[in-house]
Write a structure and sequence with these properties.
It is built from twelve helices and 13 strands. By secondary structure, the chain is α/β, with parallel strands linked by helices. It binds (2R)-2,3-dihydroxypropanoic acid. Belongs to the D-isomer specific 2-hydroxyacid dehydrogenase family.
Amino acid sequence: EVWNPSGKYRVISTKAMPGTRWIRLLTDQDCRVEICTSKKTILSVEDILALIGEKCDGVIGQLTEDWGEALFSALSRAGGKAFSNMAVGYNNVDVNAANKYGVAVGNTPGVLTETTAELAASLSVAASRRIVEADEFMRAGLYDGWLPHLFVGNLLKGQTVGVIGAGRIGSAYARMMIEGFKMNLIYYDLYQATRLEKFVTAYGEFLKANGEQPVTWKRAGSMEEVLREGDVISLHPILDKTTYHLINKERLSIMKKEAILVNCSRGPVVDEVALVEHLKENPMFRVGLDVFEDEPYMKPGLADMKNAIVVPHIASASKWTREGMATLAALNVLGKIKGYPVWSNPNN
Ligand code: DGY
C-alpha cells in the first residue's frame, strides 16, 4: 500500500498501523509512505531487507522483528537515517548497531502507560477473583446454584501490592491498585519513585481523615523483600541481560503460596519452565501473563494450568494508545529525516 507516491522521502512501515493520522503526518511532509501488506504476522530479516531495497529514508518497525546489524547496515546503505519501533520496549533493537551505522532509533513511551497499567490491573483482579475459571465453568453448563465456597478468591483491600520496576507503567499500575483497591505498596526499583511515594502518603492521609484504615508504602531494599511480602506482584522492568529470568525457580519459591504474579513486561523476564512447575506444585498460586518467553508460543503445560490467565501481548491494545504509538513512531522517523528533534530516542 503506497501513500503519496511522488513524495521525496521513502518511509516504510513493516505493518499496517491503526488510524490515519500517522500517514497524514508523513505525507504532509513530502514522504512517500509504503505499508507492507504481507500476510505474515512476523517478518524475517530477509523480508525486511527486501522492503528496504535500494533507497529508503526511514522505517517504522515492530517488536517482533530482529533489528540488528544486518538491517541497520542495509538501511544505512539505502540512505536511511531513522528507525522507530512502534513500542516502548526496544529489546528487539540493537541500539549499538544502529549507532554504528548512523541510524537514529526511536520508541513510543508515554501513550501506552495507562493502557498497559490497566491490563496489569485487570489481570491482577481477574486472577484474584478467578474470573476466567468462573467464566469457563458457566459456559460449560456446570453452574447448578449458589454455594458458599464457589470460586472463593482473595479480597485485595488491605493486601500488599508488590511492584518490581516502578517507572512510568509500574507507578501507574501501583496507583490503580492502591486507589482502586486500597492496597498497601511495596516496591523495588534502582531509583526512588518519589511521586508514587507522595501519592500513597497523601492518599493514606485522606483515608485516615475519613476514618478508614490508611494505606502504607515501603521501598524494598531488595527484590526478594517484595517477593516475600507481596500478595499481588506485578513485573515492570525492561528486558536486558540483567533482567533475563529475573523470576526463576529460587525466587518463585520465596513467594507466598497464594500470591499472584502478573507480567506485562517481556516474557523472558520470567523463567517460564520454572513457572509452569511452580504452578503445578502450588495450585493456589496464580499468574496473569500478557507476555511469553518464546512468543507466540507458550512453554509446554502452561495452557493446561487453571491457575494461569494468558492473553496475547495486548497490554497496550486500546484504540487511543495504538493510534498514539503509530503517531509517535511516525514523528520519530520524520524528525530525523527533516532535522527536527526525534520525539523519543532511547539513547538519550
Ligand atoms: C511495548 O510497547 O513495548 C509493548 O510491549 C507493546 O505495546
